[in-house]
# Entry
Amino acid sequence: MKKLRIDLADRSYDILIGRNFLSRLGDHLSYFKSARRALVVTNPVVNKFYGKVLSEGLQSAGLEIECAEIPEGEAHKTLYDAQTVYDHLIENQYDRDSLLVALGGGVIGDLTGFVAATFLRGVPYIQVPTTLLSQVDSSVGGKTAVNHPQGKNLIGAFYQPRLVAIDLDTLRSLPPDEFRAGMAEIIKYGVIEDPKLFAFLEKNSEKILNQDTKCLETIIETSCAIKAKVIELDERESNYRMVLNFGHTIGHAIEALTSYSQFKHGEAVAIGMVYAAKLSCQLGKCSEGVVQKIEALVEKFGLPSNLPQFSAGEYIATMYRDKKAHNKNIRFVLVRDIGTVEIVDRVAETDIQKVLAS
# Structure
């Protein structure tokens, strides 16, 4: 088992990466000695695969386990669905020593973290991510949120988990399109920070898509290490952590305009990365060759690279409502080269319109 440490003073925690250890998760909960009860928040599909083995692993630590299910999909990352979890906690008299466990992908992780941050003004929670995307991105870093019809993740809080437990075996039950969607965030890490990771992805795409064990360990550990480094430098996204949003400005607009139902998050980010690269080239930040490399790698992993058909005005209006907008300006993370990006606080609407039409 690999262990990475997120160093955030009294909010520090470990990321565990290994195989077949959900049944032994209780062995890693020694610092939850005061907890007597745990509520596992999951969706019906994930619960069917891993609910029983995880519950047994938690029971070995002396915890009383209950489960709350949220329907699958981004459309259920809402205040209404969070209310389902609040209702269970309140009706069953959970207290501040109780533990929440997010078992699932990014939707479950974000929603569970949001409930943990707000129930009784904060209770501990752990992340047990079961999708590639959540393992390398949303489970790490303490961003918790639910969506609003006018924008993604507009209602949320920064609230760190106490542990992230990544069991690579959970990827075996992941549908191929979900696995590919997770690759978008890994490509992002290569673009923003690590040319060697980007080159590794180019060279080993077939092995990765076939879930080669060594390749998976390499790309997941590298991605988590990059995100850990960024979070330690800027936990609350005051500036530098914005680099993690490469591809997300347009990606989030795509999700909102399609009512979170047409594209998976990673698919929308993949398109967003391609068009952020095109915008970068248009503004003289990078060469056409960089754009071609990013677009080629996105397509190599079977991810979409073309915008859905909405007007430039609709895209821009949605971007203004994004939480990354600043002083009524649209922010972008733009690429200079593979491994080097910059945060641009204001991009002119005319430049955005031009790239959206390209």
